[in-house]
């Protein structure tokens, strides 16, 4: 159907040209309508340049950070943001322990009893402190290690090493530092977990292991990652 501007223009011509011109124009418009298939105005005409608008669609990309990542035997250290450019969650790994693998004898009570090397990647932005808790899940959460006060830009810890400024609690045996797996019988499963905390844990050197582990686990965490492994009785 003709727009408002067309009707106004047509009316103006009708006033100038008189009744005869109006009749001729009416016949012409009727013919044009029939030639176009009589679509009753359903066909949309292209808008004038001064009627054109642009619609912008906003796209939101949301990323979540899982509570726990999967360990790997060949991980590397490093740090990134809460939503890193790679989209990777916090991950924990060890060059000595594969995910769901076996704790090497060297790190157990039947070997040198030294803590294994640990590596983590994609530490969330806003992390104030990193802390590590190692528990025997088959011995009511027996504490084998609590290492706290680690700086957020630290990519991991080497075998048998405690970074300067870190605090170690006592283990379940009452000794400070690491206590290697030492199941009396069968096979036990262990969880090595790193926490990215948004505030300091408050763990102090030689604090009781259960209290220190509970303090870390109760602290606000931006993310955590776990590496699972097992060890058997000699």
Task: Report on this structure.
The chain folds into 2 domains: 4-51, no CATH class; 91-232, PEBP-like (Phosphatidylethanolamine-binding Protein, Alpha-Beta Complex), CATH 3.90.280.10. A hairpin with a 5-residue loop joins strand 4 (129-136) and strand 5. The model is unreliable at 1-86 (pLDDT under 50). 18% of the residues lie in helices and 23% in strands. The chain is globular, with a radius of gyration of 36 Å. It has helices at 4-35, 209-218; strands at 91-93, 101-102, 118-121, 129-136, 142-150, 156-157, 167-168, 187-197, 221-232. The strands form 2 sheets. A 6-stranded mixed β-sheet has the order 2-9-8-4-5-7, covered by helices on one side. It has a 3-stranded antiparallel β-sheet with strand order 1-3-6, with no helix packed on it. The longest helix has 32 residues, at 4-35.
**Secondary-structure class:** alpha+beta
How much is the average pLDDT? 75
How far the N terminus sits from the C terminus, by CA atoms, comes to 93 Å
Strand order of the largest sheet: 2-9-8-4-5-7
Would you identify the regions where 5 or more consecutive residues have pLDDT less than 50?
Answer: 1-86
**How many alpha or pi helices?**
2
Q: For the CA atoms, what is the radius of gyration?
A: 36 Å
Per CATH, the class of the largest domain reads Alpha Beta
Tell me, briefly, the overall form.
globular
**Strand count:** 9
Any idea what the CATH superfamily of the largest domain is called?
PEBP-like
Sheet with the most strands, sense and barrel status: 6 strands, mixed
Helix content: 10-25%
* CATH architecture descriptor text of the largest domain: Alpha-Beta Complex
CATH fold label of the largest domain: Phosphatidylethanolamine-binding Protein
Q: How much strand?
A: 15-25%
